[in-house]
């Protein structure tokens, strides 16, 4: 998820209470010191839902709010080696804020590296990112006890999703046709999701959650892992490859690769409804977050999740068009 625009403090903390951010940094410094690190020598890594610092041979990730990371740590320890997740050195909580410390892995955040890659390398990266995610999907029988059937952008109930749709409608002033289509897409997802195989999805299969060192060497941050249709990860893969940071569709080799992967792995009967529903739920969650920031820098209609959501509600299906024909 990309943070909404704003000002103040570190760019990743611009919409957070400065005192809360300072507390998280102090807690992270204590954790880092326990593992031989000095936060003043470590760099702040990409990512929004948690705060991460990397350096001195370790990576420290700590929750912004008092929440446990024990479930995620248990899942990571059970992941197959092919996922490439760095080794966990420790896990715990400080004043209720869960934290995980892993070994530092040489590499660059894939989101940061992306603009420097050739089209062929970007295409390769999309295939490799999917390979890492598939390792978790394939291990679902052994991993499923570590994840829930909701979380991240997948609400627990259709009622919760409908409530999010109502908030989006209130903010964007959807037309009656858009409103009807939005509810049909949501209903279609929740109706068909129980009918297909349930896989352990990464739940946030974004470029920023992978490491690149000439190839994708690791898939990180399984905090939003969720048990459900594989289309949950597919919708994010396609979005990452086909949509710019500003929310514009991009034609590229990477986008073609993502579409090829999705077409190959979509459920043959319910895949279109599932990937469309997952994509809409993804943007509803992001729109909720942006609404919470109450930024006046742009009109609500111009926000990235607003733009993507309304595109997904058009007759062709926005960036998913080739998969919905």
TrEMBL record:
Q: InterPro entries, from UniProt?
A: AGP_Transferase, Aminoglycoside_PTrfase, Kinase-like_dom_sf
- Which residue intervals define the domain Aminoglycoside phosphotransferase in the entry? 45-255
Coiled-coil stretches are none
| One Pfam family it belongs to | APH
Protein name as it appears in the record: Phosphotransferase family protein
The lineage's top-level taxon is Bacteria
């Amino acid at each position: 998820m990309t943070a909404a625009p704003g000002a103040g403090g570190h760019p990743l903390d611009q919409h957070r209470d400065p005192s809360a951010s300072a507390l998280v940094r102090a807690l992270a410094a204590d954790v880092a010191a326990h593992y031989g690190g000095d936060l003043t020598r470590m760099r702040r890594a990409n990512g929004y839902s948690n705060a991460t610092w990397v350096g001195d041979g370790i990576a420290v990730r700590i929750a912004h709010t008092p929440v446990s990371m024990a479930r995620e740590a248990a899942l990571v320890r059970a992941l197959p080696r092919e996922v490439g997740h760095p080794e966990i050195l420790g896990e715990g909580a400080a004043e209720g804020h869960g934290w995980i410390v892993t070994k530092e892995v040489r590499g660059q955040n894939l989101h940061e590296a992306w603009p420097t890659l050739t089209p062929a390398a970007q295409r390769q990266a999309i295939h490799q990112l999917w390979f890492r995610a598939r390792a978790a999907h394939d291990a679902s029988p052994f991993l499923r006890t570590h994840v829930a059937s909701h979380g991240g952008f997948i609400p627990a109930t259709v009622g919760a999703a409908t409530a999010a749709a109502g908030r989006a409608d209130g903010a964007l002033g959807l037309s009656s046709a858009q409103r009807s289509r939005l509810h049909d897409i949501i209903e279609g997802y929740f109706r068909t999701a129980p009918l297909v195989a349930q896989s352990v999805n990464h739940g946030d299969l974004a470029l920023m959650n992978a490491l690149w060192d000439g190839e994708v060497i690791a898939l990180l941050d399984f905090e939003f892992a969720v048990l459900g249709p594989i289309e949950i990860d597919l919708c994010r893969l396609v979005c990452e490859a086909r949509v710019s940071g500003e929310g514009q569709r991009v034609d590229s080799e990477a986008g073609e690769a993502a579409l090829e992967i999705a077409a190959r792995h979509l459920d043959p009967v319910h895949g279109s409804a599932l990937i469309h529903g997952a994509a809409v739920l993804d943007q509803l969650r992001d729109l909720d977050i942006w609404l919470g920031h109450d930024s006046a820098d742009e009109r609500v209609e111009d926000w990235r999740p607003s733009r993507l959501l309304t595109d997904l509600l058009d007759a062709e299906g926005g960036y998913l068009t080739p998969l919905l024909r």
